[in-house]
Amino acid sequence: MRASTRVIWTVSVLMLAAVSEAIFPLPFLPFLPGFNNGFRDNNAAVKVAKPVAPGAVGKAGGRRRGGAPEAQTNWAGKWELFLENSGVSAMHAILMPVINQVQFYDATIWRISKIKLPPGVPCHVVNAKTNRIDCWAHSVLVDVNTGAIKPLSLSTDTWCSSGGLTINGTLVSTGGYGGGANTVRYLAACKDCGWVEYPQALAAKRWYSTQATLPDGNFFVIGGRDALNYEYIPAEGQNNRKLYDSLLLRQTDDPEENNLYPFVWLNTDGNLFIFANNRSILLSPKTNQVIKEFPQLPGGARNYPGSGSSALLPIHLYVKNPKVIPAEVLICGGSKQDAYYRAGKKVFEPALQDCARMRINSAKPRWKTEMMPMPRVMSDTVILPNGDILLVNGGKRGCSGWGYGKDPAFTPILYKPRAARGKRFRELAASTIPRMYHSIAIALPDGKVLVGGSNTNDGYKYNVEFPTELRVEKFSPPYLDPALANLRPKIVNNATPKQIRYGQNFNVKVDLNQKDVTKENLKVHMLAPSFTTHSISMNMRMLFLGIVGVNPAGAGSFEIQTVAPPNGNIAPPGYYLIFAVYKGVPSIGEWIQIV
């Protein structure tokens, strides 16, 4: 091709790409003459974008690809100490619906914590022959507004367990260690409720397993140490005895394991995306058949003890949805395949620095990788109310395990999934508290992020490199910049439904003292609370609802006409936090239940 013709053709394609980027899922650049973006399909590297400088932001009034204009701020967020002593180190956490209390629990094996069981609650009998008892609490409910702590009694060991919420907001906790490994536990979302435990409910021992909510509200649980299989959680009070072998877990079980706590996301077609170590499949929970195998993600191990983190990116819904609703998975960080072995030899390798995402409903799914500003392992991934992603906690070297992680990652990263490639990462304000192995982070109704835990020790220890951490912090993301306070909507509680049904049209009324309010910049988001432990956020799910219209509803008020999710494949029944979001600034969330 002559040079002049090549230039004209290249410019034409670039102009077409500029106006079509939101329509076509793949960039035009690979087709330019002589262009090589480093992408190789399947087991190969993907084009890598350079990290963004700390504090970098887009131009004022910037627009996300496929999204509304977003208010801009240079504010990097703020940390505050919420609790000096949570009583129990937060190894596991979930926000309980309606009552706005967070459940923290760790392990009973150590027979110690920093809070005793309250008077009148009998101590747990550890050994009837020796009369050994345990009067420490290993589970607490923490009010997210006041910090009030209520200790609860646990009998079975919840160490490295899994969990999720029922349709009615009851926490179902599965597995654990020793006598707790086959247990299913129930904690209802009420202020006076206690744990109900069924020690023989599961067919296999589930230690480091993952629990997922199915379209009908039932539960699936997979994996765990020496459990290369999966099962379905039975109704309360019943015992399950049927197991299903997992070829994926067998094939990804390397000498360091690296396939514990697999990532499981409910796809928009009702099937389960399951990722273990560096491979993934799509499994039908109806037929128990593997529907699809995805390309391998190169670079290292992503699951425990490799311990990257993952999210199902926000699902975009419309007033009339397409037959196939897109779904995209994000996986960030992790460690080299042999990191656990090397850490045992006191060699702490740098963690992985990449973030990869894949459209799992694409006809030809493939991983696309970008580089974070820093390597990370043992981080927590939190979907924020406005749909951005917060990567927080963890370290920069080593892997999960007692004393196996080094170099704390104090600086959280904001990831904007709808921003242009190369402009998605931003470093935020740093914490001063190391959050290493056994840390947690969850989104709160007020838009802040609750951050707690960190215990790299076999027990509660304080005179060590990384002491058992009982302090709990709250982090305010950039959209809580005081300068943006006038952009923050307020949902009118008594004018917004508390229950909705699939496909239902409903209204969300907000107070918002702004003139430029349209259906393009005022949105409705729904967030499912996650069960968070060991860098995995089970059942975390964000929905962007379709907007019919936005109408004035009196001075300083607007009514958003929106549509509920179409079915349980998109949004399993149960409780969600609903947010009104104006130019990227979310309201305080209100609880709404899909029934």
UniProtKB/TrEMBL annotation:
InterPro entries, per database record: Gal_Oxase/kelch_b-propeller, Gal_Oxidase_central_sf, Glyoxal_oxidase_N, GO-like_E_set, Ig-like_fold, Ig_E-set
Annotated ranges, domain Galactose oxidase-like Early set: 488-594
PANTHER family to which the protein is assigned, alphabetical: GLYOXAL OXIDASE-RELATED PROTEIN (PTHR32208:SF63), SECRETED PROTEIN-RELATED (PTHR32208)
Top-level division of the source organism's lineage: Eukaryota
Domain Glyoxal oxidase N-terminal: 91-479
Species of provenance: Eutrema salsugineum (Saltwater cress)
Annotated protein name in UniProt: Galactose oxidase-like Early set domain-containing protein
Keywords, ordered alphabetically: Signal
Residues passing through the membrane, by range: none
Signal peptide: 1-22
